[in-house]
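Dear Dr. H.,

I hope your travels went smoothly. While you were away I took the liberty of generating a structure for the chain from your last submission, since the lab meeting agenda had it listed for discussion. I wanted you to have the full record in hand beforehand rather than looking at slides cold. The sequence, exactly as received, is reproduced here:
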Amino acid sequence: MTDQRSETASNAPPLGVDAFRLDGKVAIVTGASSGLGERFARVLAAAGARVVLTARRLDRLERLAAELDGAVAVACDLSRGEELERPVQRAIEEFGQVDIVVNNAGMESSALAVDEKVTCFRQVLDVNLVAPFVLARTAARDMLARGAGGSIVNIASILGLVGLGQIPQASYTASKGGLVNLTRELSAQWARNGIRVNAIAPGFFGSEITQGMLAEERGRRWVARHTAIGRQGLPHELDGALLFLASDASSYVTGAILPVDGGWTSI
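The corresponding predicted structure, in token form, is as follows:
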């Protein structure tokens, strides 16, 4: 009798690095016009995915799309509710499906909590929490209808796991904390349908949000003192986490929050 746990050659999972390939997959990346979002789009495309690039700055997206095979640029302002379903709609129009969503776009507001305007607080939550929910929900509807499963990767932050205080960001930390638990809840709701929902919680990496602080030697020294590895992160150091969570390499992982923070949350 054949062991029921064995796999035939036709349905065996890919071995080793092949499990990280994304050939035939369609991915959406928000905030893809610069920084980490642009890097994420390039990484997914290099692994074989066709990528829908989303951000407000269409000119930058179009330049990036011209460099990637099968990429499409879609202008979308995530603070405008009427535009939030546009990336998924375009992906289905162009490619017939959505397999991966990387909710990367975000904004921050540095202000003391006693001074922060409620309108600003709400705007940060709209972009960092409400928009990822709408994109995940819209994509999940397509995944559920096709019965094909999929992967949603939310880009949270270590500030969704711990407080900071020295850099006052009540709205940003609230939004990222919400995104962390939204990740867990959506993973629980959709796991039986083959839709995995996970999050990456980066530490301090160079981006438009952190450029002011990390451009100064004082800011870099402060990050180094509080990070176990003793330095800020480099963009390529998120590649492995992204590919792992986006691909079948993590087929048994859902609801996970993966810190990529140089040990910040360990000390």
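Two observations you may find useful: The chain has one domain: 22-259. The longest strand covers residues 195-202.

With kind regards,
E. W.
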